[in-house]
Design brief:
The protein has about 425 residues and is of the alpha/beta class. The chain binds guanosine-5'-diphosphate, 6-O-phosphoryl inosine monophosphate and magnesium ion. Magnesium ion binds next to loops.
Length: about 425
């Protein structure tokens, strides 16, 4: 029996949603384990587009169970909006196919406000967050003052929890000259939606244990990417959760031995939304072209994504950090019309050659990429479903990439559509 964890190996938006949806035909259960509605996962099924933020990408398939684990930060209003939106597209969401961890921490309106206040005050030093309140909510979780799904059960308990968390927030708000956040209206609003949220609430660790003993296959769906991990990413330009595969165990309540294969979703070039170092960024017409052909606009904030060449050094690094067994190479078709394609194989920092990205942001900003150049293939790969049908130069690029990152290319995606995917290694069977 195999369970698979899917993580992004770059700065997010690698195409995790598409691959999770494609692979979930084989899974019984799909689990989100970190992040929140900062994620935007796009699925395209027979021409219909679904943009998921909090709901696991398995939700669109009948007879699959979708789980939001304890490691996810949940904005209850955003969750209810998303459920309503997807229901309007004809997808069923009920207590049988959606489970939300009773221990998941809530994102509340004052978290969103704090995210905005800080970003606005930071000026040039801003992180470029999604302004969804993700950072402040995780801070409250670790600060042990957070409100969790289970706290919605009792009015008395909720009152006490709100008192505690607002004491902290209001001290900061006062210091920043912002108005005090009042408890009563928020409590009333939360109590009015509580039954809608609580109906999905269960002990997720127990459900996963039951599914495991029934021999069900579980797919863990990561959000963001390893370079946005709070420990291993380009700190401080990161998100506030661990995005590495082992977070699937903590964020859902099962041991790391429940994860048998880690698939790293990897774009055939690189993108980043928000601020922070990006050694292979292209601020020229090739970068513009990648953005236009790849439709590189944020799913959540509609911001233009920064684009650049594939960074083999970074992906080789994140593969090691996250224990990635194989990669799913996505958006190969976006490179179709380029006569030359470059891959970063080392950096030069202060005149010294380096084979990894240094940890300090100031050194990262100085890293100059050293490239290997490949011939393009100048023809369409869109919709190709067999490796042998790819143009020779594309096969060569993929083989060289595979050799450089020292990891198997397990699948290749050639369009946004669910089935336009080349299967090389089935992670559930390998
Ligand atoms: P995620 O956050 O990792 O799930 O990725 P996003 O959904 O935010 O961004 C990936 C974008 O690329 C989406 O618009 C997908 O529909 C699209 N996409 C995924 N795979 C491919 C592919 O192989 N080719 C092309 N052209 N687009 C793809
Ligand atoms: P998916 O799951 C790309 C980025 C933000 C910002 C930084 C911190 O769709 O790949 P946050 O709001 O999390 O505090 O912002 O992280 N970011 C993402 N970038 N894809 C995502 O998710 C992201 N989620 C957060 O742009 O730079
Ligand atoms: Mg995304």
């Amino acid at each position: 029996m195999k369970n698979v964890a899917i993580v992004g190996s770059q700065w997010g938006d690698e195409g995790k949603g598409k691959i999770v949806d494609w692979l979930s035909s084989e899974a019984d259960v799909v689990v989100r384990f970190q992040g929140g509605h900062n994620a935007g996962h796009t699925l395209v099924i027979d021409g219909v587009t679904y943009k998921l933020r909090l709901l696991p990408s398995g939700i669109v398939r009948k007879d699959k169970v979708s789980i939001i684990g304890n490691g996810v930060v949940v904005d209850p209003w955003a969750l209810l909006d998303e459920i309503n939106e997807i229901k309007l597209k004809g997808v069923e969401v009920n207590q049988k196919n959606l489970i939300v961890s009773e221990a998941a921490n809530l994102i509340l309106p004052f978290h969103r406000e704090m995210d905005e206040i800080r970003e606005d005050a930071a000026g040039k030093a801003k992180i470029g967050t999604t302004r969804r309140g993700i950072g402040p909510a995780y801070e409250d979780k670790v600060g042990r003052r957070s409100i969790r799904v289970m706290d919605l059960i009792s009015e008395k308990n909720l009152d006490h929890r709100l008192e505690t968390v607002l004491m902290h927030h209001n001290a900061i708000r006062k210091g920043l000259g912002k108005e005090i956040y009042k408890k009563d209206k928020l409590k009333e609003n939360l109590l009015s939606i509580a039954p809608e949220i609580l109906k999905y609430s269960q002990p997720v660790w127990k459900k996963i244990d039951e599914f495991k003993s029934q021999g069900k296959k579980i797919l863990f769906e990561g959000a963001q990417g390893i370079l946005l991990d709070v420990d291993h990413g380009t700190y401080p330009f990161v998100t506030s959760s661990n995005t590495v595969a082992s977070a699937a165990a903590t964020g859902s309540g099962c041991g790391t031995n429940s994860i048998n294969y880690v698939l790293g979703i990897t774009k055939a070039y690189t993108t980043r939304v928000g601020e922070g170092p990006f050694p292979t960024e292209l601020k020229d017409e090739i970068g513009e072209k990648l953005g236009t052909v790849g439709k590189e606009f944020g799913t959540v904030t509609s911001r233009k994504r920064r684009c650049g060449w594939f960074d083999g050094v970074l992906v080789r690094q994140t593969i090691k950090i996250s224990g990635i067994d194989g990669i799913a190479l996505t958006k190969l078709d976006v490179l179709d019309q380029l006569s030359e394609i470059k891959m970063c194989i080392a950096y030069e920092v202060d005149g010294k050659k380096m084979d990894y990205l240094p940890a300090a942001v100031n050194d990262q900003l100085k890293a100059k990429p050293i490239y290997k150049t490949f011939k393009g293939w100048n023809c369409s790969t869109k919709g190709i479903k067999k490796f042998q049908d790819l143009p020779e130069n594309a096969k060569n690029y993929i083989k060289e990439l595979e050799k450089f990152i020292q990891t198997k290319v397990a699948s290749i995606s050639t369009s946004p559509e669910r089935n336009d995917t080349i299967l090389i290694v089935d992670p559930f069977k390998s």
